[in-house]
Specification:
The structure is a homodimer. Chain A is mainly alpha-helical. Helices cover 56% and strands 7% of the residues of chain A. The two termini of chain A are 35 Å apart. Chain A binds a DNA duplex through helix 3 and strand 2. Chains A, B: Pfam families: Rrf2 (PF02082).
DNA sequence: TTACATGTAACTATAATAGTTACAATATGA
DNA sequence: TCATATTGTAACTATTATAGTTACATGTAA
């Protein structure tokens, strides 16, 4: 199991928009060239980012741009925008354990506690990083 | 995307073995009755738990038992035993971004850092909880 | 040696991902 | 206004993983 690459594609796109300010050139075709995928994949991700208020893009108008400052967008914002993991659903529990068994009738709530805590720990790690840091890291890496 | 319920099934099994010390009655048939699944599913999970040294079970001999003390088994041990998430593979990155683009040629290492940190945060959360706590929680819940 | 459990291969149904084709809807410049 | 180019989306495919199931070989012990 792995979290969908929609997330990494979304981060890639947003970094590109941050670095290339020339809005009109940021078409799905062009972005697809950098990500190395199909333009329709880009447009689908773009549609989700637009829904979350992270990018500006309009039907018929070529190109796109960030709708917020780089340092105002955390990795958690992007993660939620592209809907790769549902609320409290990183871990999948088996359903309908036997209620006639002490373990069966109590384990779900115990697991939910632990799983929820673990998921939150992961999400918190994404929350404390902004795209500004990721872009800076990319620029730094390229200048070595 | 969700992490396989093999993990929750494995925890369920281990809790049962902790509560029912009568080894011979812990057959895959019986465990399947509490988890509410097929005995073969139990045997597959059991095979992985055995491989990780968490349970004792032998071909031809009915039943099973814990191979370690409850407080010596963390949720991370179980998670690794059933192999639900590969090393550094919780997040799936898009492959082959364009090396002719500054973002394309640098984003993978930036993402790997962030994704690895997030995965470790989640796994650490599992590491600090032992099965002893989960079993105690189950017993407490049942006595309300 | 019989009975019964474990171990495992092979198959099914289901669901999600990533990519693709096709086309409608939209906006803009000539 | 119309031609053109792009976005938005539906519909389809191939691939992969999960969870469950059947079938049967293997192993143990009474």
């Amino acid at each position: 199991m792995s979290i969908s690459s929609r997330f990494s594609v979304a981060i890639h796109i947003l970094c590109l928009l941050a670095i290339n300010k020339d809005k009109a050139t940021n078409t799905s075709e062009h972005l697809a060239g950098s990500v190395n995928t199909n333009p329709v994949v880009i447009r689908k991700v773009m549609s989700m980012l637009k829904g979350a208020g992270l990018v500006n893009v309009r039907a018929g108008v070529p190109g796109s741009e960030l709708a917020k400052g780089l340092s105002e967008i955390t990795l958690l914002d992007v993660y939620k925008a592209v809907n790769v993991v549902a609320e409290n659903d990183l871990f999948n529990s088996h359903e309908h354990p036997n209620p006639d068994c002490i373990v069966g009738r109590n384990i779900q709530q115990s697991l939910n506690k632990q799983f929820s805590t673990a998921q939150k720990a992961m999400e918190h790690s994404l929350e404390i990083v902004t795209l500004a840091e990721v872009v800076q890291d990319i620029l730094d890496s390229d200048n070595v």
